[in-house]
Structures are given as C-alpha cells and as structure tokens.
C-alpha cells in the first residue's frame, strides 16, 4: 500500500471517531473515546485494506485499459463478496468481541440483519467510488500515454516521409548526370538538347518533391517529357507506349514514381536497335502499371535499389495498399496503387478525431457529475439514517430517499457505463470503421 493511502485511512479513522464521539455518544469519557477510536480504526483499515487489496490485485491481473468489460464484471462481483465478508467480520468483532452487546447466535439472527445490511450497502458505495476513482486514474494514464504515442508516431512518420522525399534530388541528379556523361561521348549535339530538357524536368522535380501525392495526369505528362528526353539518347532502341484512360487522370500517385521506374528500366536492361526495350505504361483497375520486356544487362556494380525502395516506403506511409512487383522470364512489371482521395501525412487532427474528442469530453463531464452525485449520496444517506435512527424509533423513513435517489444513480450509471451513450459511440465507431475499410478497399 502507498504511504498516501495509509495516511488517508488514518485521517478517516480520526474523523469518524470525532464524529461519532461528539454527536452520537452520551458518555464522553476517555474510555469511550478510545473504544470509538478502536472501532473506527478497525472499520477503516479492514475495509480499506480489503478493498485496496482487491483493487490492486485486479489492476495487476485485469487492467482497465486491456480488459475493461471483464474488469468491470469482476470488480462488481469481488466488491460485493469481499465487502459482505469484511463487514460481517467488523460487525462481529464490534458487537460480539469488543462491546459484547450480542452473542454469536444473536448476531447471526434477524435481529442484526438490518444493521449488517445497511453497513454492507455503505461499504459497497464507498468501495464502488474507490473502484471508479481507480478507473478514472487508469483512463487518464492510458489516454495520456496514447496521446504521447500518437504524437511520436506522427512525428516519426513525418520525419521518415521527409527523409524519403529528400532522397529524390540526389538520386535523380546522379542518374541524369550519368546519362549526360555517356551522351557527351556518343553525341555532343544530343547532349546539349538533353541538358536543356533536363533543366525543364528538374524544375518539375523541385516543384513536386514537397508534395505527398500528385494527380495521375501530372505524372503522365511529366513521364512523357522524360521519355522524350530518353529518346534523344536511345533513339529507336527504346519504345514507350501510354494507355491510361482519361477517367483515371484525377486519381493520385506518389510524385516522381514513374520517373524512378523508367530510370530502373533503362538502368537494368540493355537496349539496341535489333533488340529494342519496350516500356508500357497503362492502368489496370485501380493500379498504374509500368511493364517492360526483360533484357537484363550485366551489372558491374551492384544496384543500390534506392528508386523502387523509395516508392514502396512512401506508399506504405500513405495507404495500406501495397506496391506489387511481378517478374517473369521475359517481362518485369510494377503496379502502383492509384488512390481515389488524397491522403495526408500530417499531425493535424482529422475532423472525425475532433468530433470523437468532443464526445469524449462530454462523456468525461457526465462521469464527473455522476461521481459527484455518488459522493453526495454516500454522505447524505448515512446522515439521514442516523437522523431517522435517533428521531423516529421503529419507523424507517430514510429508505424512501435512499431508494429513489439510488434508482436515479443506477439509471445514470447504466446510461454512462451500460448501453447508453457508450453503446451509441461503439456503434458509430463500428460503422465508421466499416466505411473506412470499404474506402481503403477502393483506393
């Protein structure tokens, strides 16, 4: 047990002792004060340690954050059984052992039934409050942890995405300079044209590199310009064909993905007039395909694999759909997902999350009101009981406010923790997840 918990039990014992000694004790002597202190301490520590042990045991075995429903059921069952045993033990020690106002037979008869039943209900209310407090603390801790984790994930995703995008400049420049250097030796005139075209293409690279997604139309137009640049070097050794319908032009792909894949085709395959390299760019359902006939050239230096790996990693940060690579004996094909909507890699809170946060705030306010009412009930009802006990002998009118107020509290608890708002939220979340999964299947 924590030191703070022990201090709370000590102050509870002292406060209960003073309350009963000053207001419900006719004989104000040191002996009666000590007996009252002994009884208050016994009730406080037995009930406090008993419920604390139950709560800590359940926290270890069934944390609220991992098994909420199971924990709720076990908490209800355990506090009912546990407090029943603890209250009977305390009352037995009080009336039979310490004060000796009853025999064991009398204590277990109907004579003390009302007293035992009332004490059990008070203990259950206090225990329920303690378990609810534990639930709120665990909820705050879990929520705080999830917020920190989500922020770290968002920052990591952004950093990773920026790192991947920053690979494009040196990668494109390195490959373009390699082409240019070989072209200078083969055909200096074409090298000049290549340099002019390269400046236009590089402008597009600089414009698009900071974007997460671009339209298929923009990427196709850029790919056609880049293919013209490649044709200036390879002439009739390379053939390009584009077969992408207009209805696919407004979908989205990762920027510079076609350019990187075209580079790979040229880099890993030989192309001659007698054996030209044929590269097809076409759409197949919701994928953009780049296919070439396989004419693998011998590599003196092993490829770094930056281009294709870059595309795969950037897609993994934007969608659950995968980049597919198909290789046969005579063909090599890469399938890029075309997305219907433009995803965002940012730390901004989506509208759905903002709405969910507002619902969570409303729910927390309702829970706070409920716990305030529960605490008030735990204070007022025992007070009414003692007023009834000492003012109206034989007539127990305090049951009426206790029952009505208790039913109201039970209804509010059922609404908050049962099938009220929480059921609606779960259903809304379930429908939203279904729609999200359905949309993920489309994009």
Automatic annotation (TrEMBL):
Q: What is the protein name given in its UniProt record?
A: Histidine kinase
Domain Signal transduction histidine kinase internal region as annotated: residue spans = 159-237
Q: Which Pfam families match?
A: 2TM, His_kinase
In its UniProt entry, the species of origin is given as: Chryseobacterium flavum
Task: Enumerate the transmembrane spans.
Answer: 5-24, 30-51, 72-94, 114-132, 370-391, 397-417
Q: Name one GO molecular function term.
A: phosphorelay sensor kinase activity
Q: Which GO terms describe its cellular component?
A: membrane
Alphabetized, the UniProt keywords read:
Kinase, Membrane, Transferase, Transmembrane, Transmembrane helix
Q: Which residues form the 2TM domain?
A: 358-433
Q: Which SUPFAM superfamilies match?
A: MFS general substrate transporter
PANTHER family xrefs: SENSOR HISTIDINE KINASE YPDA (PTHR34220)
């Amino acid at each position: 047990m924590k030191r703070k918990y022990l201090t709370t039990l000590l102050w509870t014992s002292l406060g209960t002792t003073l309350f009963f000694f000053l207001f419900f004790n006719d004989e104000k002597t040191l002996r009666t004060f000590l007996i009252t202190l002994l009884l208050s301490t016994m009730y406080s520590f037995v009930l406090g340690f008993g419920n604390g042990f139950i709560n800590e045991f359940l926290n270890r075995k069934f944390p609220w954050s991992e098994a909420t429903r199971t924990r709720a059921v076990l908490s209800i069952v355990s506090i009912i059984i546990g407090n029943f045993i603890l209250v009977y033990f305390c009352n037995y020690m009080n009336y039979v052992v310490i004060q000796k106002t009853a025999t064991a037979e009398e204590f277990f008869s109907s004579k003390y039934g009302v007293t035992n039943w009332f004490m059990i209900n008070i203990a259950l209310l206090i225990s329920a409050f303690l378990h609810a407090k534990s639930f709120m603390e665990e909820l705050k801790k879990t929520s705080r942890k999830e917020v920190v984790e989500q922020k770290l994930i968002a920052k990591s995703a952004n950093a990773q995405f920026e790192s991947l995008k920053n690979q494009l400049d040196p990668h494109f420049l390195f490959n373009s300079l390699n082409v240019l250097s070989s072209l200078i030796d083969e055909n200096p005139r074409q090298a000049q044209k290549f340099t002019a075209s390269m400046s236009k293409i590089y402008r597009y690279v600089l414009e698009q590199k900071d974007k997460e997604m671009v339209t298929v139309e923009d990427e196709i137009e850029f790919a056609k310009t880049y293919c013209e640049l490649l044709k200036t070097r390879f002439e009739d050794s390379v053939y390009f064909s584009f077969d992408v319908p207009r209805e696919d032009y407004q979908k989205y792909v990762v920027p510079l993905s076609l350019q990187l894949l075209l580079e790979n085709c040229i880099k890993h395959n030989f192309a001659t007039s007698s054996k030209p390299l044929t590269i097809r760019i076409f759409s197949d359902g919701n994928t953009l395909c780049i296919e070439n006939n396989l004419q693998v050239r011998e590599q003196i230096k092993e490829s770094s694999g930056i281009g294709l790996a870059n595309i795969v990693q950037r897609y993994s940060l934007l969608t659950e759909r995968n980049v597919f690579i198909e290789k046969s004996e005579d063909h090599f094909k890469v399938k890029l997902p075309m997305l219907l909507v433009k995803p965002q890699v940012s730390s901004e809170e989506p509208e759905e999350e903002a709405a969910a946060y507002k619902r969570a705030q409303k729910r927390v306010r309702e829970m706070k009101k409920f716990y305030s009412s529960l605490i008030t009930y735990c204070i007022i009802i025992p007070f009414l009981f003692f007023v009834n006990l000492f003012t109206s002998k034989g007539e127990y009118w305090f049951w009426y406010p206790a029952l009505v107020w208790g039913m109201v509290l039970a209804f509010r608890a059922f609404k908050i923790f049962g099938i009220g708002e929480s059921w609606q939220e779960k259903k809304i979340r379930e429908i939203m997840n279904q729609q999200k999964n359905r949309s993920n299947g489309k994009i």
